[in-house]
Amino acid sequence: MGSRHHQTGAACGTRCTCHIECYDDNHHSSYHTTSTTQWRREAVQCLGGWRSGSFRLDPSADGGRCCALFPFTSYTVQVQACTSGGCTNSSGVTVRTTAAKPSGLKPIVVVETNSSAMALAWTYPSSSNGVILRFVVYRRLACPLAEQPFSQPACVPGDAQEVYRGLDTILTTSGLASYTAYEFLLQAENELGSVDLPVWVRAVTAPAAPQYVKAPVLTKNGTLAVVDWTQSFALNGRLRDYVLSADGEVVSKTISSVGGVERLTKDKTITFIIQAVTVVGQAQSPPIIFDPNAANNTGVTNPTPTASPTTDENTFYKEVWFIIVIVIVGLLIIAIIIAICFRRSYNQQPYIRERLPLEPHRPSDHVTSTSSTLEMAASSTGAWALALSTPPSPRTATCTRCRWTERPAP
User: Fold this and answer.
1) CA distance 207 to 149
2) Is 280 left (phi over 0), alpha (psi -120 to 50) or beta?
3) How confident is the model over 181-221, as pLDDT tens digits?
C-alpha cells in the first residue's frame, strides 16, 4: 500500500492536503481533504462496496470511528498524516466487522408440480453477513383458492407448517391435494438471526380426476325435492358442470351444487344420480332415493363411496385370441366327426343270401304222374316246405320239382 502527498499551494507551510486510504478485501478507494492550518489534520474514510462514510478528527485526537462498512467483512486500514513539512503513512491494520442478519435472499422457486407433489429450489442470499447455519421452508394453504367457475366462500390463509430445515437448496414436498393453491416461504438463518421480511410464493398443484366422497343432503319444500351435493365431490380440478338426473332422465346441467325436482304427489319417491364433470374426467354418485316418509328423506342407508366398477379388460373370453382358438377347435371337431362317418360307410359288409334263388317258372312243365308222395322238409329259416316226389316210371315223365306256396308249419 503506497502513500501520496498532494500540494495545492505555493508553499507547503500555508496549505497542505491530508490523504487517508482505507482498504477492504475486494475494494480500494481514497479520500482527500484539505486543511488550512499548518498543524495536523486527519481524515478517515472507509468504503464498503458502494457505501461510504467519513469524518474528520480533531487535531488533538488520536483516533476515530469509521462507518458504512459491510457486516462480516475483512478490511485493511491505513492512515496518512500530512503537515506543511510532508506526509507519512501508518502501517496497515486488517480487521473484520461483526456478523449481521442475512440479506438479499431471493424468493423460493417452484421447479415442477404434479397432482400431489411439488419440487422447489433456492439459492444462498447475496449477503450472508455471517455463516449460514440453515434454511427453513414453510408451507400453508393459499388464499384465494384455486380458480373455479362458481363463487367460493371467503377464505383466510392457513397456518404455516415447517416442511424443511437444513442446508440443501432443493426440496420435493409431497402429500398435497390436487388442484389446490399453496404458498411457500424460505428463510435463511445465521448466528444473529434470519432474513427480514421474506416473501411467500404461491403455487397450484396439477388437476386430477374427481371423486365421489359423501352422500348428498336431501330436503323437501312442499312438493319440491331438493338435493344439496356441495360436500359430495372432491373436484380435484376446474369444474365444467354438474349433471342431475331424476328417475333416469337428465333434469339439469349446472355449475351450482344444489338442485330440485317437483313431485306430482307429496308421497312420491325419486331416484337421483349426480355427475361431476371437470376438465380431467368425471365422477358419479350411486343412486340416491328421495323418500319423504323416511328419516332424512333418504329411502336407503346413506351410501358410502364405492370403488369404480371393474371394466371388461380382464374378461379373457372376450379377447380376440380366445375367440380364434375356440373357432379352430370347433372346426377340428367337425372335421373329425365327418371323417368317422365316411370311414363307417365304406366298411359295411355286403348282404349275404340265406338260400339259393328260385329258378324261373317254365309253363311247359306239368305233372303227369297219378301218384305222388308229399314230403315235408325243414328249411334253414325254420319254415316248412312241401315237395312232391313220384317214383320213376318208364312210361311217364318225371317231375322232380313243383312250385308250392310256402306256409309256416303248424
Assistant:
1) 15
2) alpha
3) 999 999 999 999 999 999 999 999 999 999 999 999 998 88
Percentages of the chain per state (helix, strand, coil), in multiples of 5: 10, 40, 55
Cα distances (Å, whole numbers) of residue 157 to 117, 140, 201: 19, 7, 13
**Does residue 130 contact residue 71 with C-beta atoms inside 8 Å?**
yes
Q: Look up residue 323 and give its three cell numbers.
A: 375367440
3-state secondary structure of 337: helix
**pTM exceeds 0.90:** no
**Whole-angstrom distance, CA of residue 326 vs CA of residue 332:** 10
Strands (E), 191-314: 193-194, 200-204, 211-212, 217-221, 224-228, 233-234, 239-246, 249-254, 258-262, 270-278, 282-284, 288-290
Scanning 139-249, the segments in alpha helix (DSSP H) are none
* Cα end-to-end distance, the chain, whole Å: 164
Task: Return phi, psi of residue 52, to 5°.
Answer: -145, 160
The residue assigned the cell 432474513 is 195
Question: What 3 state SS string does 376-409 have?
Answer: EEECCCCCEEEEEECCCCCCCCCCCCCCCCCECC
Q: Print pLDDT tens along the chain (410 aa).
A: 333 333 333 333 333 333 334 444 433 333 333 333 332 333 333 333 433 334 455 556 666 666 677 888 887 777 777 777 888 877 878 888 889 999 999 999 999 999 999 999 999 999 999 999 999 999 999 998 899 999 988 888 999 999 999 999 999 999 999 999 999 999 999 999 999 999 999 999 999 999 999 999 998 888 889 999 999 999 999 999 999 999 999 999 999 999 999 888 878 889 999 999 999 999 999 999 988 887 777 765 444 444 444 444 556 777 888 889 999 999 999 999 998 888 877 666 655 656 666 677 665 554 444 444 444 444 444 444 444 444 554 444 444 444 545 455 54
Name the nearest CA neighbour of 223 among 251, 261, 166: 261
Q: How far apart are CA 262 and CA 224, in angstroms?
A: 4
Q: State yes or no: cis peptide before 144, omega within 30 of 0.
A: yes
Give 381's DSSP letter: T
Strand-pairing partners, residue 311, are none
What is the rounded distance in angstroms from the CA atom of residue 131 to the CA atom of residue 190?
A: 6
Q: DSSP for 178-207?
A: TT-EEEEEEEEEETTEE-SS--EEEEEPPP
